[in-house]
C-alpha cells in the first residue's frame, strides 16, 4: 500500500474531507465530474487526492467496462473512500486513468 500525505495551500476554495474524521482528501479545484456511481450511490471524479492510502491493484468489471483499479482509504481513520483508476482496457475510457473516485456519502464539502 502507498500512503499519500500532502500539505495543500487552502485559498478559500472548497475542499472535500472524510465525513468520518474530517481529514482533507481533495480540493474543489480538482473536481472533474459529479456524474459517477459507486456502491453507496453518487460519486465524484477528481484529478488528484491527498491524505489517502492506496490499496492493492485489482481487475474489476464496472458499469463502463473492464478496469484495473485500487481502492483508496482515508489516511487518518482508514475509511474506504472510493478507488483510483490504474488502467482502462477500453480506449474510450483511458481518460479515467490516474483519476480518483470519491463516494459522495463518504465525503463532505468544506470552505
Summarize the structure.
This is Protein yippee-like. Residues 14-111 form the Yippee domain. The protein is built from no helices and ten strands.
- Percentage of residues in strands: over 45%
Helix content: under 10%
Average pLDDT number: 92
Q: What is the H/E string?
A: EEEEEEEEEE
Unreliable spans? none
- For the terminal residues, how far apart are their CA atoms? 30 Å
Radius of gyration: 13 Å
Largest sheet: 7 strands, antiparallel
Class by SSE composition = mainly beta
What is the strand arrangement across the widest sheet? Answer: 1-6-7-8-9-5-4
Number of strands: 10
Shape annotation: globular
Continuous helix count: 0
Task: Give the SSE layout.
Elements: E1 2-4, E2 15-18, E3 24-27, E4 31-38, E5 41-46, E6 52-62, E7 65-74, E8 80-88, E9 100-103, E10 107-110
Antiparallel strand pairs: 1-6, 2-3, 2-10, 4-5, 5-9, 6-7, 7-8, 8-9
Q: In words, what does this structure look like?
A:
The model has no long low-confidence stretch (mean pLDDT 92). The chain is globular and about 35 Å long. Strand 7 and strand 8 form a beta hairpin. Helix content is 0%, strand content 57%. The termini are far apart. The strands form two sheets. Strands 1-6-7-8-9-5-4 form a seven-stranded antiparallel β-sheet, with no helix packed on it. The chain has a three-stranded antiparallel β-sheet with strand order 3-2-10, with no helix packed on it. With 111 residues, it is an all-beta fold. It is built from no helices and ten strands.
Amino acid at each position: 500500500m502507498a500512503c499519500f500525505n500532502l500539505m495543500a495551500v487552502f485559498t478559500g476554495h472548497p475542499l472535500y474531507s472524510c465525513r468520518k474524521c474530517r481529514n482533507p482528501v481533495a480540493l474543489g479545484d480538482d473536481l472533474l465530474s459529479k456524474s459517477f456511481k459507486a456502491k453507496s450511490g453518487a460519486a465524484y471524479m477528481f484529478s488528484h487526492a491527498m491524505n489517502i492510502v492506496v490499496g492493492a491493484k485489482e481487475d474489476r468489471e464496472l458499469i463502463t467496462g473492464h478496469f484495473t483499479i485500487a481502492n483508496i482509504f482515508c489516511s487518518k481513520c482508514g475509511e474506504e473512500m472510493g478507488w483510483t483508476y490504474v488502467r482502462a482496457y477500453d480506449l474510450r475510457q483511458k481518460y479515467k486513468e490516474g483519476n480518483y473516485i470519491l463516494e459522495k456519502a463518504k465525503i463532505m464539502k468544506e470552505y
